[in-house]
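stage 2 :: seqdesign
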């Protein structure tokens, strides 16, 4: 059965991770994603490609369910072809700075002239109304400026990047749900619109949910940062033979944990009796928790905590995920036969729809794999396509 976005066409001019992740989500949900690339291709094609030129693992990870169209948009013929495509598209997404997209002649006003109800989304580093609007933005820069790198100073003794491209991926999710909201509005009113999704503001919005803390009520002098979350002692705890994640959460959880640990003295300690009193003594509480957990094995803690309904989990390495019994049961990692790469393994879409399933319909495309197919669908003649090929505006 077709996915919930079947019938929608998205023109995707983005590269790296943020935009491609967003459009892959839409593609998994059934939309036709046309990935428009320069003749050199998305830079992620060349990262870690080794013996698979232009098909690096990150490109494969965020570009399935798409068709690749090469267009050198510096050439007028290619720009004209893109505008003909836009006449039949529902969404136009780019990640260029405003001055760059304007120089190409692909502003919202231009696209709206060929498709009045188009949803036009600019995925930027910083909002266009602010002084950083023209600054370059990559995940590292955004982790630094949004406060995330500094949060890690509490743990590492110096600012550190989080070891995943969290800025790109959070912003990609923001792009995806923003486009869906604009499409819902269009379905109700017939109106397209211009969207601006900035990475910096997206990450601040994401990060400050818990870290507004006292600044919620005292903007000038209150403490920012949720103390429990930024404590050095909030971490997987060492056991006799490894590590384990244990999180007594409710009053009952803590009482049960102290009983399981044979620490009745702590069960009677007023500092740990309520959420409010525990929040004032996180450092002592987490320090004591670590000392207790170090006295038994990982398996012992998992068994005893589960028996007492205390939240507990093992510490998986990335390699462990492929053998995790839950992920195996739900089929998270799926293998398929790619027409040029052979057997590849990917992570399936996480959401289960009862009527309109998300699915992997096609693997990530080779550079320009669908150029002529897409151009013909847009109404270009073989002669016009040949002219684009001759000028090296497409392949």
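stage 2 :: out
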């Amino acid at each position: 059965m077709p996915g919930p976005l079947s019938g929608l066409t998205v023109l995707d001019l983005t590269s790296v991770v943020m935009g491609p992740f967003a459009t892959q989500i839409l593609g998994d949900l059934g939309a036709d994603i046309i990935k428009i690339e320069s003749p050199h291709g998305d830079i992620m094609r060349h990262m870690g490609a080794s013996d698979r030129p232009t098909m690096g693992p990150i490109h494969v990870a965020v570009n399935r369910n798409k068709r690749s169209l090469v267009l050198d948009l510096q050439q007028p013929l290619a720009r004209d072809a893109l505008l003909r495509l836009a006449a039949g598209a529902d969404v136009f997404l780019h990640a260029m700075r405003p001055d760059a997209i304007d120089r190409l002649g692909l502003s919202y006003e231009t696209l709206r002239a060929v498709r009045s109800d188009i949803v036009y989304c600019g995925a930027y580093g910083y909002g266009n109304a602010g002084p950083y609007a023209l600054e370059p933005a990559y995940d590292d820069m955004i982790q630094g400026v949004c406060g995330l790198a500094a949060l890690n100073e509490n743990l590492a003794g110096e600012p550190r990047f989080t070891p995943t491209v969290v800025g790109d991926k959070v912003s990609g999710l923001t792009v995806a749900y923003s486009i869906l909201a604009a499409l819902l509005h269009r379905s109700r009113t017939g109106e397209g619109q211009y969207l601006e999704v900035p990475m910096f503001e997206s990450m601040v919005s994401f990060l400050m949910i818990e870290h507004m803390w006292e600044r919620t009520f005292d903007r000038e002098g209150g403490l920012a940062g949720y103390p429990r979350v930024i404590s050095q002692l909030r971490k997987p705890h060492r056991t006799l033979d490894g590590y384990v994640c244990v999180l007594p959460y409710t009053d009952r959880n803590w009482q049960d944990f102290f009983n399981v640990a044979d620490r009745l003295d702590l069960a009677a300690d007023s500092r740990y009796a309520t959420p409010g009193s525990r929040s004032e003594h996180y450092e002592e509480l987490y320090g004591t928790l670590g000392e207790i957990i170090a006295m038994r094995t990982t398996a012992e803690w998992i068994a005893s905590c589960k028996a007492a309904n205390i939240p507990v989990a093992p510490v998986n390495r990335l390699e462990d995920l492929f053998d995790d019994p839950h992920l195996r049961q739900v089929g998270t990692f799926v293998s398929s036969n790619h027409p040029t790469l052979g057997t590849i393994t990917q992570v399936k879409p996480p959401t289960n729809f009862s009527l309109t399933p998300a699915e992997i319909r096609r693997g990530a495309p080779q550079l320009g794999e669908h150029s002529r197919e897409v151009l013909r669908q847009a109404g270009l003649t073989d002669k016009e396509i040949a002219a684009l090929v001759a000028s090296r505006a497409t392949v």
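stage 3 :: structure notes
- The mean pLDDT is 96.
- The two ends are 33 Å apart (CA to CA).
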